[in-house]
Fold this sequence. Notes:
Helix content: 25-40%
Number of strands: 23
Oligomer: single chain
Shape: flat
GO cellular component, one term: cytoplasm
Protein name: Nicotinate-nucleotide pyrophosphorylase [carboxylating]
Number of helices: 19
Distance between the termini: 58 Å
CATH superfamily of the largest domain: Alpha/Beta hydrolase fold, catalytic domain
Domain Quinolinate phosphoribosyl transferase C-terminal: 114-288
Radius of gyration: 28 Å
CATH architecture of the largest domain: 3-Layer(aba) Sandwich
Number of domains: 3
Domain Quinolinate phosphoribosyl transferase N-terminal: 36-112
Function: Involved in the catabolism of quinolinic acid (QA).
Strand content: 15-25%
Strand order of the largest sheet: 17-19-18-20-21-22-23
Amino acid sequence: MSRHAALLPTTFSRTIEDWLAEDIPSFDYGGYVVGNDDKVATLFCKSDGVLAGVPFFDQVFQHTGCTVKWSFEEGAEIMPHDGKVAVAEVRGPARRILMGERLALNILARCSGVASRARRLRTLANTLGFTGVIAGTRKTTPGFRLVEKYGMEVGGADTHRMDLSTMVMLKDNHIWATGSITNAVKSARSVAGFSVKIEVECQSEQDAYEAIDAGADIVMLDNFTPDTLRLAASNVKSKCQSTRNNVLIEASGGITEETAALYMLPEIDIISFGTMTQSVPHVDFSLKIAHETSEPALSTNGVFTMENLIKVDVLPGVGDTEIAEGENELVIHLGHTIDYVTEAHKLATVSIDEHQQPDIPETVGQYRILQHDMVSSEMPYNIDDADTQSKLAELYRLDKSRELENGHSLVISCSADLGLDGDVLADSPLSASEQIVMFINGGGFILSDVPELKWLYLRISKELGRRVFVPRYSAGLNHPFPRALYDIHVAYLYLLDRGFRPEQIIVYGLSAGGNLALSCLLLLDMLKEPTVAGCILMSPYLDLTMSSDSWHRNKDKCVLPKVPNTSARSLPRLYYGPTGMSDVEFEKRLVHPLLSPLFGNIKCLPPIQVHVGEHEVLLDEAIEFAKQVEQANTLQNNGVASIELLTYPDKNHYSLFRGKTQLDKMYPPMRRFCDTL
């Protein structure tokens, strides 16, 4: 069940035996009670995480005379619904199952916790385009290092050095004891030989230069801030290139999962995390022996779907709506949902009412809204109500920490070239003509960790010559459709409340953020609100049915950022949330324009610029969208959006917005587009 098991030394079996002996040094009184009748126990996972530690778990029960059957491969990302999911069965005498229970669970919980953090960090790196090494450290639990290092491997991280014998790391104490970095490296090299790498911990840029000149293989820049790290690493890299020295640069010291993205710089080769093993939360497992009358059957039903994951109350809409016979337009009645899991999210949200919406036909016409009755028990949602706007603005008010009580943050980023600091508290217009860019991140509707992408916002701000406003919307499994769309709309209302006029706002959507950007513009039209000055769409995900040919034609060419616990094909269901609809019914639902804006009313849109790579799976829907806009513009030429489509040869979803050369090509037309608005 595990390809990583081959890494383990033969001695790990003896380690398991020692741990069992520690737990049962004499009489097993509890085992006496249950006896030796054969039983079946089910291993349940009760929290999200990466399954790791399978060989250790198996070995525990092999020692106790039991067998284990797994329903998940090691390395799988498990996402329980209804509180738990069965992942394995253990068969054997009841006494022997319980003999190994606690040890096996302890190992599995700890190993899976380490693997889960490693996977999250590796996923974040992949999402940001960081190609360097994500590594752990030697800060492991005594006697448990093999398990924790194994968890790193399963999670996709590098183990770094296993022990003092596998690599030389010269830290501050080594250097102080020998008098200098040069002396320490020279002494280490005299005994380590050619096959052992030498790494030097450096507290300054000058330390790094001395380490390089002394012959170090790896330079660790320790406890640098992100800003000082970027400058020092760039200078050190330049020195290495000028001397043709292939020294690796490692960043370490105080880097956490929350701050990791700030250190994922192109100049860095390795980032090491002591937090890979320190204070890492365990994955929750339990082992339950079945009752005689109901032997548990292994099932993974629903693990990777949103079915029954959370409870959402769908309230009936006000009044019934019928479609007049022969009417060409499909009428969508909007109801409302409240109670999104936590008290902090009990806000009004727009929802397609499950009881009121008619079936969507195969051939979809234009949509129109007859009414919208979106009411929360706590806050009435009415855009014409000044008091409500004031309450919403206050709710989303920025403070110094950028963190709001409900878990949102709204970030204003801007470039030093504009004469402003990197973060500014003043979020009102600097002038009556100032334009601001509202950037909407994608992440498959699941990842919305906005603060970690500050480098991108600053680059956009610098290149476009405008401040960038970044709303952090509710994302992930606990916030199904249309929560994210609602948050983007409220962010737009927030800008209006701060004094920006619609014609001063440019919306910029990346990937799934492009879907949210365009859907928000359609929502503005539905609610009869003024639209923005223009919209930039970067690799937009406009059709959740994924029915275009490029999804098949380019599937082997396109690289998509990996979203934890899911695949690209399952994103629509994860985004939409719990539903009892069949695949056919759900496919019909997906053509609603607030889900797939490709099918929306293009007559209501502002000028739009679209960027897409020719090797992207999203290519055809971007082209189709541009064609629809052009055709409508030709036929009517009456307030229809202008469209500019820019395609990039040999670029896939990942490479389109990664790399300095590519970005240098894309920003000039973006700047030109913004300047014409």
